[in-house]
Amino acid sequence: MIDEMDDKRIKVLLLTSSFPSSIDIVNKSFMTDLAESLSKKSIEIFVVCPHQPDLPLYEEHKKIKIFRFPYWFTKSEQKMGVKGGIVASIYQSPVAVIQLIPFCICEFIIAWKIIKKEKIDIIHSHWIIPQGLIGAIIRLIIGTPHITSIHGTDIHLIHSHKQAYPLIRLISKYSNNITTNSSHTCRLLQDIIPQSMTKNRVIPMGIYPEEFNAKPHCDIKGQKIILFVGRLIPLKGTSILIKALRIIHLDDSSIQLFIVGEGPEQIFLEKLASDLEVLPSVRFLGNLPRNELGMYYKNASVFVLPSITYKDQSEGLGVVLLEAMASGAPVIGTDTGGIPDIIKDGINGLLVPPGDPYALADAIIRIIENPDLTNQFREAGLKTVHERFSWEKISDQFIEIYQELLKY
After folding, report:
1. What is the pTM for the complete model shown?
2. Do 391 and 33 form a contact (C-beta atoms < 8 A)?
3. pLDDT, tens digit, for every residue of 69-81?
4. Are residues 234 and 137 in the same domain?
């Protein structure tokens, strides 16, 4: 564990495009967890994020100071970062594209004011565009040490647009350190900036394992349940999982599929399940708070993340796999994106080719029909989470970077 800073608390400004309300237990994100875990270790955290409807411009939560900036003429029409960050906002609303420039200007202004007033030690930008650019410009002007953390969606989008490469090189030049959330994300960055490897570290996002140590849901205990958790978008491959269920039902029609999450594909997925005659065995549960979600993880016979590559996008890491592992559920993921950073095939779970419902069905049946394999994956999964992906371990890695920059 990193030594506490006794003489002076390091002041870190987190720049982000997405930060839920302190009382939002459904959409609590890894940014909330990261801020809280750093704050617990005597890092003084300031967060700059876009304003969202019905949220205050300023609030303090667990010693974290949260500043939300308005960036449009009327707050009700602000579209950036409302659901899933900037990339998702741009896909969901053309208005968000128009709002990007005032968004960047407003975030720069409030960040500048806070840095000057609070004498911030380090800027920590989350997502390379636009936060990484804002942090880089401030470092260029006044020299405040700057870290850029890349989470996957940002670098995937840029990777297919070579005209943006010079901008990414500029951000890299004025970032003291760059962190990526997986080996896959790191490779994408290396394609754009090979020399970035001298300042890059892979530091994943994590979980609090104790939050997923829930009791099983009594009403469904003992049933054969496949569980999926995630946004209902093409990237997540939920349609492949429904097709796999149809194949599984040829042998065992008692197996059910529980789908947790919401998104634009829900109507399509419901129709697909109906067309394949498995709809009675599929339950769409919507979004669930963590305390309730933990009960479903506990009941799962197997947890599946069937992500695919879609429009040059792939899974950045797959934090839901960690949540499932922490709950003791055996896991299956696809061999794409950052998922192999978590799942070591045959050791703590199974990897299958993306987009292949037959391989997925075989893997699901293999786990459900093999209690010894299930127990092996449960034990190995818990070990994986506690040793590599707990916020206790991950926050220490970020603090180590902070201390190196400030020569603590």
Report:
1. 0.90
2. yes
3. 998 877 777 766 5
4. no
